[in-house]
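Morning!

As promised:
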Amino acid sequence: MPNESLNVRSIFDRALEITSDAERAAYLDEVCARAPEIQQQVDALLTAHVVAGSVLDAILRALSHSQSDRRES
Amino acid sequence: MPLVDAELRRLAEQRPAQEKPGQTLQATALMHDAFIRLVDVEKVQQWNSRGHFFAAAARAMRRILVERARRKHRLRHGGGLHRIDLDSLLQDSSAADGNLLVLDEALERLATEVPEADEVVKLRYFAGLTIEETTMTLNLSVRTANRHWAYARAWLYQQLN
């Protein structure tokens, strides 16, 4: 399993560096041709990547708001 | 502790500048609590590098945030973690404490499974360092730090859903 997650990680890293959607899709098709389960994991990470930042930031921002609210009340 | 004191003050001063005016007090108070914790130990701490110091500061701040969240969450819900509700997160800041606890558990797993990415997350989220400051602190290239950052956030997001 460690090898597989390493593989997912390196494919994810490389895919993020490809700015063109078409080229990225082509890269993933090629590198994951024989490993659909890895492609699935990479796709899930790439989807998460798109929304991850704003959601994680929102958690911490909301947290600090609720703390300053408490301080003022 | 002149070095530690100066570093913490620098952190405390730069953090509020990036945030809304109302958060200044909160950020400064957090820094103060973290500072107390860092120096309030029986034996003298030895900081052998900037990275070592920032990592300890980030850990202290995260612990404070988590303890506060846990306390408030217990009061409000009688304990027990729940899944993150994204809709309520966007509308209701009181969901944040429970969310932070779930996030904290995910961070524990990240530290075990992807320790190098976890270091970047700690410094960026919990010590408020920029990506440039993080690269200097951990002695990484910008490219590597950005890769760890992107992977860690996507990984964490998956864990939260």
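Chain B is about 75% helix and 0% strand.

Hope this helps with the figure draft.
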